Amino acid sequence: MKDNGAGGQTVTLKDLADELGIHPSTVSRVLHSSSEVAKGAASAATAERVRELARKRGYSPDPQATGLRTRRTRLLGVIVPRLSDLVLATMYEGIEQSAAELGYSTFVMNSLDDPGEQRRKTDIMLARRVDGLIIGDAHLGSSLLQELTARKVPFVLMNRRARGYPSATCDDVLGGELVADHLWDKGHRKVSVIAGEPYASTAIDRTAGFVDRWRSLGGDIADSDVVWSRFDTAGGREAAETILMNCKPTALFAVNDFAAIGAMGALRSHGLTVGLDVAVVGFNDTSLAAELPIPLSSVRSPMLDIGRTAVQLFQRVLNGERVEAVALKPTLCVRESSV
Amino acid sequence: MKDNGAGGQTVTLKDLADELGIHPSTVSRVLHSSSEVAKGAASAATAERVRELARKRGYSPDPQATGLRTRRTRLLGVIVPRLSDLVLATMYEGIEQSAAELGYSTFVMNSLDDPGEQRRKTDIMLARRVDGLIIGDAHLGSSLLQELTARKVPFVLMNRRARGYPSATCDDVLGGELVADHLWDKGHRKVSVIAGEPYASTAIDRTAGFVDRWRSLGGDIADSDVVWSRFDTAGGREAAETILMNCKPTALFAVNDFAAIGAMGALRSHGLTVGLDVAVVGFNDTSLAAELPIPLSSVRSPMLDIGRTAVQLFQRVLNGERVEAVALKPTLCVRESSV
DNA sequence: CCCATTAGCCCAATCGATTGGGCGAAAACC
DNA sequence: GGTTTTCGCCCAATCGATTGGGCTAATGGG
Q: Which of B83, B109, B128 sits opposite A83 (nearest CB)?
């Protein structure tokens, strides 16, 4: 029983062994064989005594020591653009739940979508000897993923995907298509897209899904009707301003709720009424969408499930299985902003 | 050079020592004495050779081994109600920054403000042998904090405070006072408060600050004008409905932006125009406040600084210093919702 | 020139848990 | 009854880094 700075006294395997008059290794074996009788490790009676004492003393193995010996930390690194983004925070909630069930603890770090930070955070995580990574901020065209593969770091992507890597995402192409179908049905013929950052597969796929479907419906949409932007409200506002300078669409599709909210602000400033003069559809169905004065139509993506799925995929990657990309189905929530 | 499951080959102290033909302990001492010449540990020449090789090989000490030996993990546990709450996510961002500077890594877990989860998450963190905790979800009247103190777990509170414990918070009383002054100045005389959860010091303090100042200004406010509620939009909406059933205030103070947004929704449903018929003021000045169709007045709390301060306080607690509560000053941002 | 000091480094124990290999004793088998 | 299994457990090495205590040779002082 040593006094640990944090957590007061800690019981060690040896403490238990001494108290029972047996060898630490025996205790270890007993506590590991989940089966009733530790196969060959100890008698049923001893096993029971060990388990009993362990419970009574509140024994919990030292992860440092275990990790040192077994070379597995049961630590999972999670990198996201930023946690103050509701979408990523929700996915992280899913991760936390599933990880806890599997006995994993998770580190999260914000990369702010900055390549330098991505590398730096990755290095910090690896220095901590995480068993692997869940990467929520993958940039298309970055070499980071290849490097990680080369270094044999197990990882899965989440939120954004990249060709050739396992990932848990929303089916963003389908999401874009749903919006195209919806706006077309409502009779819109002149539309613009606030497309997000071109390095993110979410932006690319949602936009591509929308544009391709729109064209295949017979619609007309020029490349100049697609405006790339940041994902936040300010970015959405700016993009909408750009769009309104060039033309006057009857509908806007923003690949992100925050951008959509920014766009709604811009429309208002131009004296246009959302839902009446111009339809707006967002993406992710964050909790705010429904609460806006003019409730925002939005594609609901299963964020919590995406997080959970990411952990499950990760588990399988660790087991050496070959894992494909998983795309979870979104649904469209139609509200006043696009009736 | 062993092959680690994650991270490929890892260089150990012994690897470096072998390659240089010296003893691992010497390498260790050199790498630790930050001073140019390792005082007595090695010659300047040797020290340089060691540092050079360490850099070349990309040596990074195994935290497991270090922690095992030194009994310090440089791990910091952070518990928050939920990360998908923009306020807590932002504070966490501050924590992450400061912690990284001090060489700490942080775990975050969501307690969902559920007492059972609070204990469970705390236990998980302690089982991981964190050096201490930053607690962002303290409940007034809970015995958890006393227990932690009894177990000698170093911790500081953040966001919410509790008498007798070190904490980094916003000066919520002052925040409430600012709102009272503002609304009184604007000529409001009939006001209601959407007060939040009574177990949170944030809710209590903001409400108390407001009510006390209001009365000292000569205002009249009954206990029934203070409605306790959840912190989210739905909670704010319900609270506003309750208020509107009883009376018709000319101003509402919600202790949280999300609750304020919910309240704005309720007002709208009642045919009331925010800012014209009823003034609304929120708290925290989350990034959405300014983006709403009718921009929301809100008390801006220094969330990032609160997170950073929490880490600094924690550092001092670890050093055994006696630490007081720190309350950072908020400012009021007046917008259209309360002109 | 001798002794004390110090620079420069090595030795070995230690942190807590895991794990392959033993080693007696009891039980089973022929 | 003798031999082979099996049971029940112990031994000791190991993971990687830290740290108090040596030990040797060179340096300095007198």
A: B83
